[in-house]
Amino acid sequence: MEVFKPLISVPMPAQARSQQALDRFLAAGEALLAANRFEEAGVAEIAREANSSVGTFYRLLEDKERLLLLLLQRFLMNVEQIVDEEFDPEAWAGKSLDDVAHGLVGFLVQLYKGRRGVLRALILQASRDTKVRDRIHVTNDFVSRKTSAVLRLHREEIRHAKPDKAARFISHVILGALNQHTITGALGNVSQRELCDELSRVFLSYLAMK
């Protein structure tokens, strides 16, 4: 697994009680993001949800913005870790290109499921913070390279004029569609199963283009 430059340094409390409080603040923040309530929540509410105090919050995290960046960083790193494990070419050896397309797309759909809040926060933060935007690009590029590594097993079946470039580009297409679907809650009024099927069709059709 590659080690990427962190978006923000993680606080390292000296005492166990402080570390436990930090963990609770992170858990409370994640819950608020999932409920689409992080933006409107104040520090007092976050502290209350974490069973801690406002003073402890400021001592450990300085401000709400720092908590958000830590949560976004943790999400991106979690995505990278999961993709690194699941997109191992050896695990896909022997599978058909059709199975690979449906498998990779289905995995990404599941990865996005239930994460509307954090993705909305990521996109909003990226629109005003170049560091966050650059960090998202790192994650997207990592997913692209891992997808390409799996598709390299089927390079001779890819009819695109530039097969290696196509193998890396297609994941960006799928991620873009999933971003739209996750943020808006709909993409052509399709079910979860239909979403997997239609994006797999896009995946295969693009690779077949000459």
Describe the structure in your own words.
With 210 residues, the chain is mainly alpha-helical. The chain has 2 domains: 16-62, Orthogonal Bundle (Arc Repressor Mutant, subunit A), CATH 1.10.10; 67-208, Tetracycline Repressor, domain 2 (Orthogonal Bundle). 71% of the residues lie in helices and 0% in strands. It is built from 10 helices and no strands. The protein has helices spanning 16-34, 43-49, 54-61, 64-86, 89-92, 97-112, 116-126, 130-151, 163-184, 192-208. The protein is elongated and about 60 Å long. 26% of the residues are buried.
Q: Please name the CATH topology of the largest domain.
A: Tetracycline Repressor, domain 2
Named CATH architecture of the largest domain: Orthogonal Bundle
How many discrete structural domains? 2
Question: What pattern of helices and strands is seen along the backbone?
Answer: HHHHHHHHHH
Residue-averaged pLDDT: 91
Contiguous uncertain segments of 5+ residues: none
Keywords: DNA-binding
GO molecular function: DNA binding
Protein name: TetR family transcriptional regulator
Domain HTH tetR-type: 19-79
